[in-house]
Amino acid sequence: MYIVDITLKNTPASLSVQRNELDSAQATYQDVLNALQNGDRAVVELTCDRQPEKKIAVLVEQISAIQIAEKSGSGTSSGRAPGFFALTESDA
After folding, report:
1. H helix intervals, the chain
2. Of 13, 17, 23, which Cα lies nearest the Cα of 4?
3. Assuming Cys at both sites, which of 14, 18, 19, 72 could form a disulfide with 50, CB separation 3.0 to 4.6 Å?
């Protein structure tokens, strides 16, 4: 399972959809990247393979970053918090 995360401008949380196959995750990534580079679309709509009823429509001009991560096991993706930024605990 692969997770495609999208971070929006001025928003601390990321949006994510899951893909069953790496090829599908890379195609989703490329679709969003092309929309960002070309500016040919105002909105990108994404669906989730794991939850087909989950749909996200995002204004392309509000996207600040996109990433693909492999989800391993039943925990969080790659053993880290979802999204681009991970908080670390302090020994204070």
Report:
1. 22-38
2. 17
3. 18
Place of tokens 């996207």: 63
- Phi and psi (nearest 5°) for 89? -80, 145
pLDDT digits (tens, 9 = 90+) for 40-78: 789 999 999 988 888 989 999 999 999 999 987 655 444
> Which amino acid, 19?
R
Whole-prediction pTM value?
0.73
Separation CA 82–CA 3 (nearest Å): 9
Between CA 57 and CA 60 the distance in angstroms is 9
Structure tokens belonging to residue 42:
């105002």
